[in-house]
Amino acid sequence: MEIKELRGLRGVVAAVALLIIFVGVISSFIQLEGNVARGISEEYNKLAYRMAPNNLASWLYDYRGFDTLIETGVIYVGAVVSVMVIGRGLVGLKGMREEEEVAAAPPIALKTETMPVLLKYFALPVVILLLAYGLLVVTSASTSGGGGFQCGVIISSAYLLSVVAYGRRSPLNMRKKALVAFGALGWGLYTLIGLPGYLTTNFWQYNVGADLWSGLPSFPAAVPEAFRQIFGEPFKLALHLEEGVYYATSGILPIINVAEAFNVIGAICLIFFAFVYGWSDSAEGVEK
Amino acid sequence: MSETVVNLWSIPLLVVIPILTAIVLNLLYNRVRAIRVASVVSAAALLVVSIVSPYGLQWFTGQPGVASDGSYTYSTSIFSWKLSLEYYFGPLQQILIFTSSLLLLFVVVISTRSLKKDFGPYVAIMFLTYFSTVAVIMVNDFYHLWIVVEIGSLLVAGLVAASGAGSAQKAALKYTFFSALSGSGLAIALALILGITGYANISDAISFLMMTDLGNMYNVLYISFAFLMLSWIYAGGLAPIHPLKSDVYRSAFPHATVLLQAQSKVMLVAIGLVLLRMFGGLPFAREAMLSISLLTMILGVVMALIQTDFRWILAYLIVSHSGLVTVGISLGTPLGIVGGLFQAVNDIVYMSVLLLCCEMLLYFNNGTSIRSSGGIAKKVPWLAAFAILGAFAASGIPPFNGFQSELILIQAALGGGLPEVAAVILMVSVSTFIALFRGIYSIFLKPSTNPLPEGSESASSPPRGMPIILGILVAITLILGVYPQLALDFLTESAVKVVYVPWVP
Hints:
heterodimer; B: mainly alpha; three-stranded antiparallel β-sheet
């Protein structure tokens, strides 16, 4: 739709609709100010320290962990669909005459030889620093702000910077099949990490490492000690509180964060790859 | 209240199997045999799970509920606020998921035999579309409802764009752009409901509203109702965005449209029931829902009457019949809701028959235009027979299933003191018959006036087994038409719960 189409009656209707929505939303938020019901959030906050000092990690990857799995799926599906539009996995019925396919957009002409020398020398250390920062963010997801999403975005920007600065000779030159596999590994691992909880308790994604609830009388199953050890011990934390030192483990949360990071790296870099180089099934890594 | 299991084994399988299958199929990419085996086995497994599963809840991540005294419990006979994300699998879910699973199996069998090129990602998107369909009907949480609608919109765009045709990609892009509004609408509704109640769990939010005097916060509740309704309209393709959705239905391959229309109907049911449970008591809420439904029915069928392509006719009829589903839900009475739910099941089945017949026309008629050569009945009599039987079911002619659900809807409208709604339902039924038989006569029954030139027919034969698949689907329309109680037994409990105990999932 072009802007000129919004002139006249259609534009008036659109403007009035937007105005109504704007007034409705703003007046609601004004009314809610100071009146927000705390509801279940108080309970979440009360419990969070027993698992991960970073409350957000407990919220996102444990209490609401299955939500986040599907959000991760949104990123994965976004990449699959975007790259499909560029040309990966387009289909047709056998023996049918096809409507003319959309001409694929030409790859972006990256002229890295014209990049200033200073920038070329500057880019490599920045890429290394970004990679290190991404790893730091994902490994400390349970204890401080950050996590798999953030790590994925940081490492993707390192990839982007290296491709812009060095083109095909980028030190981070990941092949498209590897990027597809990264995304699959990420979403697949996140999905499968629900299996230990399911096999032992029938609750999908029950955090068998942290195991906060199997002591309750109404808990319907028992978590074997071996599962608690395997998924709990490696991620044990010592919390130094005024009341003393308290030990807790975030269990499967660090693994989920790593999976999340793989998914985001695979998805974002794949979209970027497809838009820069186009898509050709026959020539892996060769520009169109 | 009877004790319900909170760690039902089948619910995770119904959502995780399609996700894992999709990941594997996307990796397999162009390995035809492996894709075929993996997808058929997976679809068959999902069908079996949907049949054998008992009823119950799944509290994902296994966090307990918080009882009124602050203690934690896994017992459903004690009132508690849920910490976990909650899914429910009951009779309504079973019949809708069984129907979706059966269609997924059929569509996978058809597509893996009829597609060329690298169809791994395409079949992967089909499995994820199925995932969004089953998740949306089981979920009892606003936040998750939002995410499922969001991912569902993306998947629709993917299935449509996959053909690579210019018109399909344009339709997909337009739909993606506007369906973003659906997700945004739900996100705002969620934010406001969370602000008012503090609970994302739908049952908990309803319980909170019943226990609390909202005072002047009712305005905010109305705004959240409006946004949730906006997302209902966009997710289901109701008026006034029906042209976008019909464009999507027409642009995808007909076998993909089978899954897309099933997803839309199930989303309409899922969000519609949430609207009723949460806001059904608000003055004018049901009236607003009913108005949109009636408008959709009328606009859809009128547009279908003026089309000259069988695909377009079906696309608009799917939209119009979505209005039939929502009109029943909007009536808000147990009988009306049963009618709406039954209509959803029936509609999914008979539209699948017509869509698959439409796909066969691509092989036997070299197109779906009603101005094409005609005389297909002479060439492929079984296809003509299935198309006619499907059209009978869609038009509400006894003894097919459409008749039974439309009869219930008309009774519910009359019982609710709305004879004008009953008249519109009748009008839609008659107009559906005219629109469909206009197309069927031109394509199948009219003597061939302009035979296809030699060599212009499809070079490929249609996928094997299509008559069997169509036969099974037509048999279902007939069985449900003769013995509707078979489906009604699954639907009545849900309808009664929505009206009398809306806080129970």
